[in-house]
């Protein structure tokens, strides 16, 4: 890979990772609702889960879509349904970070997404699929493992700080979201934006 290709890859990784998408909207909502520390597993799940996804796409999953085109349509349908479910969950995750200490209510309180849940989410995230497929087809077209691994590691090194910045932004918004009503409105807004992010997937 030439220096120009490296520069183009780094720019692609940064722009695709920092711009709004399901991961970033969910992390901002989690940062505002649960705080940065409790969202760390979610952030790590996004970063590591996406690196694994890029590697697996590069070593063979792209061919699956070529052999069975219907598999892409099934994936799109499942992704849309799951993102609608997540939008519903975000809209109702409006408990303040310093919530009630009543033990009897703990099981009913919303909880941040876990590491494994965030890893698994990458496989139904339309933006993650677009990023992974584009990265491999443009920057590792030979699909040699060394080239695929390099693309995945560069993506991981850039992606994790980018998505973490959205969590920090959400946590900073806690200064504004000082009551239940404001937090609830914010999460409903995030849920609506998550639904709107599905538009390119639905019309494609």
TrEMBL record:
Domain of life: Bacteria
Keyword Transmembrane helix among record annotations: yes
Ranges that cross the membrane: 44-62, 74-92, 145-166, 186-203
Cellular component terms (Gene Ontology): plasma membrane
Assigned keywords, A-Z: Cell membrane, Membrane, Transmembrane, Transmembrane helix
Pfam families named among the record's database cross-references: LysE (PF01810)
GO biological process, one term: cysteine export across plasma membrane
Keyword Transport: no
GO molecular function: amino acid transmembrane transporter activity
Membrane topology value: Multi-pass membrane protein
InterPro entries linked: LeuE-type
Compartments where located: Cell membrane
PANTHER family assigned to the protein according to its UniProt record, in alphabetical order: ARGININE EXPORTER PROTEIN ARGO, ARGININE EXPORTER PROTEIN ARGO-RELATED
Protein name as annotated: LysE family translocator
The organism of origin for this protein: Thalassotalea litorea
């Amino acid at each position: 890979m030439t220096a120009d290709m490296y520069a183009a890859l780094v720019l692609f990784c940064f722009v695709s990772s920092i711009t709004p998408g399901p991961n970033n909207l969910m992390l901002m909502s989690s940062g505002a609702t649960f705080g940065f520390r409790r969202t760390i597993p979610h952030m790590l799940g996004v970063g590591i889960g996406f690196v694994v996804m890029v590697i697996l796409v590069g070593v063979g999953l792209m061919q699956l879509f070529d052999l069975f085109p219907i598999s892409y349509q099934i994936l799109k349908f499942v992704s849309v349904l799951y993102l609608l479910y997540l939008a519903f969950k975000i809209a109702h995750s409006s408990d303040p970070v310093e919530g009630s200490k009543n033990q009897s209510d703990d099981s009913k309180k919303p909880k941040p997404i876990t590491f494994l849940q965030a890893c698994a989410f990458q496989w139904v995230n339309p933006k993650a699929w677009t990023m992974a497929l584009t990265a491999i087809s443009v920057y590792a077209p030979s699909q040699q493992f060394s080239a695929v691994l390099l693309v995945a590691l560069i993506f991981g090194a850039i992606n994790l700080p980018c998505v973490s910045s959205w969590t920090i932004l959400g946590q900073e918004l806690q200064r504004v979201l000082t009551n239940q009503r404001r937090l609830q409105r914010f999460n409903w807004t995030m849920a609506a934006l998550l639904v709107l992010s599905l538009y390119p997937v639905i019309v494609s």
